Amino acid sequence: MRAVAYYRVSTAAQGRSGLGLEAQRKAVEQFCQSRGTEMLSEFTEVESGKRNARPELAKALHHAKVTGATLVIAKLDRLSRNAAFLLQLRDSGVKFIAADMPEACDLTVGILALVAQQEREAISQRTKVALAAAKDRGTKLGNPNGAEALRRAGKGNGAAVAALKGAADRHAADLAPVIEQLRSEGIRSLAGLAGALNERCMMTARGGRWHASSVRNLLGRLGS
């Protein structure tokens, strides 16, 4: 596992003195050592827990997302006590672990998200009931010939294709600032960019390594 560490202290005085920060860093380091985890980077925020504007957290999440790393924090309350904020974090697609209770972390976020989950489940259940009722009335559901008919017709699953394209576009947007930074450092060739992305542990949209061809596709999506 690879990790991106995030530390937060509530006041500028704590940030300067290291009060609370060293304890967080020690907890995260001990956790990573116990799991044989490679630490990619560390981000420190000096911010009130009552506010959700966290530029350093945004940077940490971005780095974790583009490298496929896990965001590691010392304690869950270092992120926020705000349930809506935690829901946004959960839905960002970035894995995260609290060093003080790694097994309970996902459960805790799940409990905070319970209301939203129940509503989605209720919608899903109503949909299933409606489809079952339609089936009982004799309504034929779906394509009777399955995917084979689509292949014979030379057509794909439009929704699946659109979803894959959307995911690739979002991944490209996440990497746009990284490409901009590399170019500012004088790295402009496709091979050079591929090598630099690999050195920084950045992943392709499919989780693989970069090559000149995949960089060309990325730049095409970015229109650059």
Give a written overview of the molecule.
The chain is α/β, with parallel strands linked by helices and about 220 residues long. It folds into two domains: about 1-110, 3-Layer(aba) Sandwich (Rossmann fold); about 155-220, no CATH class. Helices cover about 60% and strands about 10% of the residues. It is built from ten helices and four strands. It has a four-stranded parallel beta sheet, sandwiched between helices. Strand 3 (about 70-75), helix 4 (about 85-90) and strand 4 (about 95-100) form a beta-alpha-beta unit. The longest helix has 27 residues, at about 160-185.
Blueprint of the fold:
Elements: E1 2-9, H1 12-17, H2 21-35, E2 38-46, H3 55-67, E3 70-73, H4 83-91, E4 96-98, H5 105-112, H6 114-136, H7 146-152, H8 158-184, H9 190-199, H10 212-222
Parallel strand pairs: 1-2, 1-3, 3-4
Helix pairs in contact: 8-10, 9-10
Total count of strands = 4
User: How much is the radius of gyration in Å?
Assistant: 22 Å
CATH top level of the largest domain is: Alpha Beta
Q: Helix count, per DSSP?
A: 10
Report the oligomer. single chain
Instruction: Kindly report the name of the CATH homologous superfamily of the largest domain.
Output: Resolvase, N-terminal catalytic domain
Q: What structural class should be given to the helix and strand makeup?
A: alpha/beta
The CATH architecture assignment of the largest domain turns out to be: 3-Layer(aba) Sandwich
